Amino acid sequence: MLEELLLPRADGNLSPYVPSGEALPVEPADPPKSRIAYAAAHVVADPLADIDPSTETALDWDATLGYRRHLWSLGLSVAEAMDTAQRGMGLDWKTTKELIRRSVAEARELDAGIVCGAGTDHVEHSPGTTLDDVRTAYEEQCAFVEGEGGRIVLMASRALAAVAKGPDDYAEVYGRILSQVSEPVILHWLGEMFDPALRGYWGHGVLDQATDAFLGIVGDHAGRVDGVKISLLDRGREIELRRVIPEGVKVYSGDDFDYPELIRGDGEHYSHALLGIFDAIAPAASAALRALDAGDVERYEEILLPTVPLSRHIFKAPTRFYKTGIVFLAYLNGHQTHFRMVGGLETARSVVHLSELFVLADRARLLSDPELAAERMRRVLAVAGVS
C-alpha cells in the first residue's frame, strides 16, 4: 500500500488520501482499425532557458518529441501544433514551425500518423487588419505545413473572428484556402469555451445559424475536406452533424466531456477522435479502441468511462486552461522532469484543482507509476506549503 498524502480540498481543509496503486498497462499497439484516433499533443517547455516567458518560447525538444513517440507507440496518431500545444497561449509561430518540421520528420521515419494545425496566429489583429491579411496568413501557414509534408488541420482564426462582418466573409476566406490545398484538410470548429475570442464564429452568435453556415462551407468544398473536428462540448450538436454532414466527410470528435459515447456511436453513425484528452489518457484510449476493434463494447466502456470524470475536471471552466492539467499529468507520469509550461501556464490552475486531478487520475488507473506520481505530487504540495 502506498503512503497517505494530505491533499488540499475546496473546503479549505487537508484530507488524507491513499492512492490505489493500480495502473493500466502501457502496451505497444498498432493503430486502431475501426476508428481514426488523433491525440492533440502538448509541448514540454525548457525549464532552464533564460528567457522572458511572456514574449519568448523555449522547448525541451527531446522530451517534446519523446512524448510523441510515446503516443505513436500506443497506436495513436498525433495532431500537432493544435491548441493543446498552446497555440495562441504562449507557443509562437517561429517555434511552431520548428515543432511541425521535427514532428513530421519523426512521423515519416516511423511511418506514423500526423496532422498539423495551420491558422493565422502569427498575425496580430489591429484596427487595420483586413480579410486579405487573414487569407495571406492562412496561406503562409498552410504552405509551410504542406511544404514539410504534413496534412493540415485548418484552425479557427481569432483575426478572422474579429474582422469578418458576416458569414459571407467566412465563406470567402475558407473557400479561397480550400481551393489551394494539395490534400483534403480537417476543418476545426473551436468553441468560445476554449477561446473566448472565437465567439460568433462562422458569422453568427446563434449556434444553429452558425452550424448552417459551417455546413454550407463544408458542402461547397466537400472534396477538399477530409473531416470536421467539432470542439463545442455539445454532444447533441455533434450527433446531429454526423447525420447531415456530406457523404465522405468524417466527423472527428473534440468533445472532451462525452467522447466515449460519441466514438462508440449509435449503431448508424459514430465519431472518429481528435482529442486533447487523448494526450492525458493515452494508455486507456489505446486499450479501449483495441476493445472496440474486437467488438467488445463492454470492455471499451469499462476502460474509458472511468476517464470521463478526470477529463471533465481537466476541461472545467475556464476551459482554455485545460493544458495545465494535461501537462501536470505528463509530469506525474514521468514523461517530463518538471512542471513548468510555456508562458508560465503552470500557474493557471490551483493546487486544489491539481490535487483533485491526482485523485481522479488514480481512480481511472492512469498513474502509470503510482509511487513516482505520489512522490511528484508531494513535491508540488510542498511548494504550495503543504508538508
Would you write up a description of this structure?
Helix content is 43%, strand content 12%. It is built from 15 helices and 10 strands. The chain has helices at residues 61-73, 93-110, 131-147, 158-163, 167-178, 207-220, 235-244, 259-264, 277-280, 282-293, 297-304, 308-314, 322-332, 351-363, 370-383; strands at residues 5-8, 14-17, 37-40, 77-80, 114-118, 152-154, 185-190, 225-231, 250-253, 272-275. The strands form 2 sheets. An 8-stranded parallel beta barrel has the order 3-4-5-6-7-8-9-10, surrounded by 4 helices. A two-stranded antiparallel sheet has the order 1-2. Helix 5 packs parallel to helix 6 (207-220) and helix 10 runs antiparallel to helix 11. The protein is globular and about 60 Å long.
Which helices and strands, and how do they pair?
Blueprint: E1 5-8, E2 14-17, E3 37-40, H1 61-73, E4 77-80, H2 93-110, E5 114-118, H3 131-147, E6 152-154, H4 158-163, H5 167-178, E7 185-190, H6 207-220, E8 225-231, H7 235-244, E9 250-253, H8 259-264, E10 272-275, H9 277-280, H10 282-293, H11 297-304, H12 308-314, H13 322-332, H14 351-363, H15 370-383
Parallel strand pairs: 3-4, 3-10, 4-5, 5-6, 6-7, 7-8, 8-9, 9-10
Antiparallel strand pairs: 1-2
Core attributes:
387 residues, 12% strand, globular
Number of separate domains:
1
* The named CATH superfamily: Aldolase class I
Percentage of helical residues?
40-55%
What structural class results from the helix and strand content? alpha/beta
Please describe the biggest sheet, giving its number of strands, its sense, and whether it closes into a barrel.
8 strands, parallel, barrel
Number of strands: 10
CATH topology value: TIM Barrel
The CATH C-level class name? Alpha Beta
SSE string:
EEEHEHEHEHHEHEHEHEHHHHHHH
Portion in beta strands: 5-15%
Q: Regions with pLDDT < 50 over 5+ consecutive residues?
A: none
Quaternary arrangement of the chains shown? single chain
**Whole-number mean pLDDT:** 97
- Counting DSSP H or I runs of 4 or more residues, the number of helices is 15
